[in-house]
Every structure is written in C-alpha cells, then in structure tokens.
UniProtKB/TrEMBL annotation:
One of its GO terms (cellular component) is membrane. Keywords: Acyltransferase, Hydrolase, Membrane, Transferase, Transmembrane, Transmembrane helix. It holds the Pfam family Acyl_transf_3. It comes from Chryseobacterium culicis. Residues 11-333 form the Acyltransferase domain. One of its GO terms (molecular function) is acyltransferase activity, transferring groups other than amino-acyl groups. This is Peptidoglycan/LPS O-acetylase OafA/YrhL, contains acyltransferase and SGNH-hydrolase domains. PANTHER family: ACETYLTRANSFERASE, ACYL_TRANSF_3 DOMAIN-CONTAINING PROTEIN. Coiled coil: none annotated. The chain crosses the membrane at residues 12-32, 52-71, 83-104, 143-161, 168-186, 206-222, 229-247, 253-269, 276-294, 314-336. InterPro entries: Acyl_transf_3_dom, Acyltransferase_3. GO terms for biological process: polysaccharide biosynthetic process.
Length: 349
C-alpha cells in the first residue's frame, strides 16, 4: 500500500477515535438532566473531557486541508471541492433530523422548526443569522457548531494560501488565532476596552484556529522532515492549548497532550499507525461525518425509549443507542452522499 493510502487510512482511524470521544461526552456527560442515569458518570475523566475529540478533528483538518490545497489549482476550485465534500451529508442529515424529530420526540433540544434547517445548510452559525435577519434561528443540532468554524477556516486559509503562499498563509491564520485568544484573555480579566466588547459575538470562533495551524505544520513536517516545522508545531500547539481560557485546568491540558501524542504517534510510529488503521477505527472514521451530524439528539432519544421498556445497565445504554445511529450514518456515507457529490461535480466542473 502506498504512503498516500496509508496516510489517509490512519487519518480515518483518528477520525474514528475523535467521534468516539465526542460520543462519550454527549452520551454520558453533557445531558445529565436528561439521561435516565442523570449525573452518574460526571466524574469519569474519559467522558468529562470527551469534547476534546473536536480538537482532534481540527488537527486532522489542518493536515488534510493543506494537503488538499497543494493539489488544487485555485481558490474557487478549492471552495467548490470543500462544499461538494460537506454539503450533501449536511443536507441529507439535516432532513433526516428534521423529519424524524417527531419520532425522536425526547430530543433534548425539542422539536425543530423549519428555520432550524438553514444554518446547517448554509454553514453559517445561528447567532450570525439572527444578527443579520433580526429573527431567531433555533438550533437543529448543537454539534453543528464545529462545522461553522471549519468553513470559516477553509475560506480564510484558502484565500491566504492562494494570495500569499503556504507559510505566510499559516502565519496569517496563526495571527488571527493570537488576536482572538488575546481578546478572550483580556475580556476574562476585565481588561478589554469597552469599545471592543461588541466584537465578542464575532471573535469566538477564531480561538480554535490554532489547532488547524498545528495540523498543517505537522503535515509539512510529515512530508519534508524539516525540523523547523516540527519546532513550529510545538510552539503553535502550546499556544493553541489556550483556546478556551475560561475552562483551562490541568486535567483538560493533560487530556489534550495525550490526544496530541496519539495524533503524532499514529502518523510517525508504526505500531500506533497499525492500531489506528484497524477496521474498527477506520470504519467509524469513514462514517464519522454523518455520525457527528446525526448522533446527539437521536442517541439520547433512543436511550430514553429503550430505558422506558427494557432495563439495560446504564453503562452500556448509551453504547447501544449510539450503535443504532451507525447504520443510518453508513447508508448516508456509502449510498446517499456519493451520487449527490458526483452530480454536483458534473454540474460545477
């Protein structure tokens, strides 16, 4: 198998790990007032910090997006390719969520109205749409937030890449991150000038950009073995760890460090690469995008339905409920998404 194929395979495995961590967070921790078992697992470190799977997704995205940019001839083509990659599953999954909401009536977020479809389909967060149109846009799925950040990164980094080339583009993204996280730190300590406070609503997304930079830097090192980029990765990653200044604690930081080491190990250490190239991880990675879009409310609804009729140990109830989402995601990834992507490519070529 070629290096290229190995690389893509292990990245799928890492996506599988990332979505499993997010599942732990959503399935055992964040909805304590809704779960049949309440806050039973709230002190379990593995589930409490499972949301950091999103940071692993961002590292992978930084790696993959720079790889994609190097293979794409221009900005418009790059944006088309990204949209074709993201839009079909988002459309399909949004419609599935919307039209099955009546059956999954136990949804923590309630039954969505039609306006809740627009943010996901447009890849624009609800808050921005509400400020533009002066009306509410209810949340269809809370996990969509990271897609809105990804799209911002694609647009800005892609524009920088084709205007200024790779290194300056990465520097530009990193400066955006530094400005955003500096704003957050100053605001937290009440040191921000009053005139800058209104920007709080717009700057929050950019505190995640440091992770994309780290992923891109390790991609460069992966290909070149130029140690300057490895050192730059270390510096960028240390800075990126301040992305959520309000929530910083030692355990969260240690969890992040472990995930970063896993990310590096899967890319550079053969035993770990083989481990994350196993079918379990690569299959979950293959369906990770539709699973991520679909799983949260659907899984919790299944938990409540099952618990109503069958007494299952609470430790495995979320696992069974999550497993019921996987076949739907597989159908989306394997059978529904590809023909739509193919058609869009033929239209937009």
């Amino acid at each position: 198998m070629s290096v290229q194929k190995n690389r893509i395979l292990v990245l799928d495995g890492l996506r599988g790990l990332a979505i499993l961590l997010v599942f732990l967070f959503h399935g055992y921790y964040i909805w304590g007032k809704t779960y049949p078992f309440g806050d039973l697992f709230k002190d379990n470190i593995l589930v409490r910090y499972g949301d950091l799977g999103v940071q692993l997704f961002f590292l992978i995205s930084g790696f993959v997006i720079l790889m994609s940019l190097e293979k794409t001839s221009g900005f418009i083509k790059f944006i088309k390719n990204r949209w074709i990659r993201l839009f079909p599953s988002m459309l399909i999954c949004s419609l599935i969520i919307f039209f099955t909401a009546g059956f999954f009536s136990e949804r923590p977020l309630g039954i969505p109205g039609w306006k809740s479809l627009l943010p996901g389909i447009l890849f624009v967060d609800e808050g921005l749409l509400e400020r533009i149109f002066k009306t509410d846009f209810p949340v269809l799925e809370s996990s969509f937030w990271s897609l809105y950040i990804e799209v911002k990164f694609y647009a800005i980094f892609g524009a920088f890449y084709y205007m200024f080339k790779r290194n300056l583009a990465l520097l530009g993204i990193f400066i955006i991150y530094l400005v955003a996280v500096s704003y957050q730190i100053l605001e937290f300590h009440h040191l921000l000038p009053a005139g800058l406070l209104p920007f709080k609503a717009y700057i929050g997304n950019f505190v995640y950009f440091g992770w994309f930079v780290s992923g891109a830097l390790i991609y460069i090192y992966y290909n070149s073995r130029d140690k300057r980029y490895l050192y730059a990765f270390v510096v960028a990653t240390i800075c990126a760890m301040f992305y959520m200044y309000r929530l910083q604690d030692m355990t969260r930081n240690l969890y992040l460090i472990v995930l970063i080491l896993i990310f590096l190990g899967a890319l550079f250490w053969k035993p770990m690469e083989k481990f994350f190239s196993m079918r379990l991880f690569t299959f979950v990675g293959f369906v990770s995008y539709p699973v991520y879009l679909l799983h949260e409310n659907m899984m919790i609804s299944w938990m409540l339905k099952i618990n109503r009729y069958v007494q299952i140990p609470y430790s495995v109830l979320p696992v069974i409920s999550f497993a019921l989402v996987i076949p739907v995601a597989y159908v989306v990834a394997e059978y529904l998404e590809p023909p739509i992507q193919k058609k869009l490519k033929s239209i937009l070529k």
